[in-house]
Write a structure and sequence with these properties.
Layout lengths: L1 E5 L3 H13 L3 E5 L2 H10 L3 E6 L8 H9 L8 E6 L4 H10 L3 E4 L4 H10 L10
Parallel strand pairs: 1-2, 1-3, 3-4, 4-5
Helix pairs in contact: 2-3
């Protein structure tokens, strides 16, 4: 399964990429939402996007809205992975079409649990 990690922090992309790779995802990276749309075009069979909120060029919420506006990405699961912890922000992201919301800092187990809830973990990868 393919995933895209979208974050302007190289370190955070590396951390999330490592967790997803260990869960047998084929992982691509993008530094912002605009770049992520290009990566998504190149890999239309992507099943998961892990999205930071605060990024230059195109933020995470705008990316979620762009993806949800396109029929071709209807089945792509969107999970916010961000420091934005205010209840209003969480509601806004979920209302825009994000499926899950994970607040930084997080553990690898927390990502796996969210992916399990979303039905994206193979049986042998479940904790």
């Amino acid at each position: 399964m393919k995933a895209i990690v979208i974050d302007d922090s190289r370190t955070m992309r590396r951390i999330v990429r490592g967790v997803l790779t260990n869960l047998n995802f084929e992982v691509y990276e993008a530094e912002d939402g605009a770049q992520a749309l290009t990566v998504l075009e190149e890999h239309p069979d992507t099943v998961l996007c892990c999205i930071d909120w605060n990024m230059p060029v195109m933020d995470g919420l705008t990316f979620v809205k762009e993806v949800r506006a396109s029929q071709k990405w209807r089945n792509t699961t969107l999970m916010m992975v961000t420091t934005e912890s205010e209840h209003g922000q969480i509601v806004k992201a979920l209302a825009a079409g994000a499926h899950e919301y994970l607040i930084k800092p997080f553990t690898p187990e927390a990502i796996a649990q969210k992916l399990d809830l979303l039905g994206l973990l193979p049986v042998e990868e479940k904790l």
